[in-house]
Design brief:
The complex is a heterodimer of chains A (318) and B (399). Chain A folds into 2 domains: 75 residues, no CATH class; 221 residues, MetI-like fold (Orthogonal Bundle), CATH 1.10.3720.10. In chain A, helix 6 runs antiparallel to helix 7. With 318 residues, chain A is mainly α. Chain A is built from 13 helices and no strands. Chain A is globular and about 85 Å long. In chain A, 76% of the residues lie in helices and 0% in strands. In chain A, 39% of the residues are buried. In chain B, helix 4 runs antiparallel to helix 13 and helix 8 runs antiparallel to helix 9. Chain B is mostly helical. Helices cover 68% and strands 2% of the residues of chain B. In chain B, a hairpin with a 2-residue loop joins strand 1 and strand 2. Classes of the chains: A mainly alpha (318), B mainly alpha (399). Chains A and B meet through helix 2, helix 7, helix 8, helix 9 and helix 11 of A and helix 9, helix 10, helix 15, helix 16 and helix 17 of B. Chain B: It is found in: Cell membrane.
Amino acid sequence: MSLRRFVVRRALSVVPVLFGVSVITFGLFHLTPGDPVSQLVALNPDVSAAEEARLRERWGLSGPVWRQYLAWLSNVLVGDFGRELRTGRAVSGILWRRLPETIVLGVFGWAFAIAIAIPAGIYAAVNKGRLGDVAARVLALSGVSIPNFWLGLLLILVLSLYLGLFPVLPPSRLPLYHPETLRYLLLPGVTIGTAAAASVTRVMRTSMAEELNEEYVTAARARGLPERTVVFKHVLRNSLVSVVTLAATLTAGIVAGSVVVESVFNWPGLGSEFVRAIDRREVNVVMAITLVTAVAVVLANLLADVLYAVLDPRIRYD
Amino acid sequence: MTDGDDPGTDVTDDDDPGTDSAGSRARSRTDERGRIRITGFDADRVRDRDPLSERGDEAAGGTNGGTAAEMDGRWRRGLRRFGRNRSAMTALAIVVSMATVSLLARPVEVLGVVVQPFALAPYDPTTILYLSVDPSVSPYDPPSWRFPMGVDGSGRDLFSRVLVGGRYSISIGFVVVGLTASFGLAYGAISGYYGGVVDEVMMRIVDVVFAFPGLVLALVVVATLGGGYWQLVVAFSLFGWAGYARLVRGEVLSIAEREYVVAAKAIGARDRAVIRRHVAPNALSPLVVLASLNVGSVVIGVAALGFLGLGMDPSTAEWGTMLDATRETLIQGPGGRIPWWATVYPGGAIFVFVLAMNVIGDGINDALDARTTGVGRDGRGGRKERDGGDRGDRGGDES
């Protein structure tokens, strides 16, 4: 199969998944008792039945479920996620305002993870069994095991409160492009990236160590290539393949992590908005963010698979 | 390989074109050569003969390590290897003692009957000390002999709360993993074994579930169902099985190709028997590894929900909920003393438990995978070991 055909086929397979994602998102909120209108009615008891019916009509909550679903889906497809129940603001506006914040945080987390994990994994694999390897393994295992909210709290505790190196929380936040933002970004970014860094280190170390035992490595050494060339040109490339397969899963982890970490640091992204919306039962906002999250993960998966096929041609012939 | 339409057909290799035309003479000739010869084979008829096909299963499995006895041996070897792994055994001791301590922390009553009378925790975890025990205690008193982990923001004894707190997180972790792993095992085994359209549809469903980060779905479920113990179990079980299903399906796809499965099918064993007796047991060891690693991530997930204020009731002594209560004080800046103990101890308990669980998971992985490497079956031993490890890592990061 040519690469292009593989990509097209893989991209097409996303369509039914996205459809399923929309069904689950919709189903989670509409098959459970208590839709937004009945909540509103519960809040003001003097709403008449006629008004209630009118409200349902306006929010697309009348008629059979499948029709409600279609109405919702056709709105979502053109970027209309409805309105907040209490304020009447458009949900899409909220999304557009919050999304960049989360993306910046996630990208920073990823960059931190890669910057730490790749060198650490290489180092551990090359020095397998020695002190450095053991230290890297212990650290990686701790990184996988530490709850990100606790790590965030500890960082605040030590770096902000005791050492005063970072502001605990910004009194009013600066725009994202401001250079000062980096200082606010550092702690949440490190917090969100730690789990990914630890996982990548573990996988990197295992796959490097395994590749180093392959025959082509012996052959390259026998040809008299310097060890550095062997490790960085031959082995590294092959080991990165397994990191790419991990990348999609880790992206999902970072997306989920943003919900918690943003709440720890009051970072005004999608994650903290999500928690706030759940607290206030803003169904439209919760649905929109759930959907956006899932779509992001599906696309990340697609990207990882395509990247995988580019790096490792064998996969295309499955 | 088989020719089910005609009960009288020999199933032999068809290299020799003379076999069919030469009739019974040729048949006896192949017999003498010791070729495989199956006469009177009829798949439909054999399906009805239950006892015979069951016995056939065993005989077929025996050649390739699928029988009960050999399975036992494999698990026993793994167990011995695990026992020699000192860090894994230490971790196991930690997990067992944490679970025991949390169970013994306060008496347990079931329907008014005291089932467990011990009380290791000095105070009731919900007692506000300055109201009922000692008026001189104030919120956020530092650790002391009387209160080894200090006092929390509402004036409750942190030590007692940390001891009791394990009950919720640990038990939810194991219950959820038990439920999701068994469902995932069945789902994945069915999907991988039948293949074709069934597999396609079932795996698309898994893809869909996988698109949602587990924590996000759990949040949504808890938001609709409300907080509480069983609500948390549901929240994490409802969509947590997808990882196991995908893993088992992959294993099953490779197992289904093995000789002992082909042989069992050729003998006419029913699908259910083949799945239950050959396919599922052999797919079990990577599942056990993933399950052990997932206990930790469920525990973190439960604590995360508690931390976001959506898990148990806010006054419950649950590790994550306890952290939520201290966050505000921490964030708003210290009014004088920094109450580090209220953050360090509950979170530390989660961390130690999850770390120990992950060490156990790694230990199980080493113990069970080494067998594959050692035997080198199908020439895929080493490859498989690494796959198992990678999946484990992925499993650990879902929340």
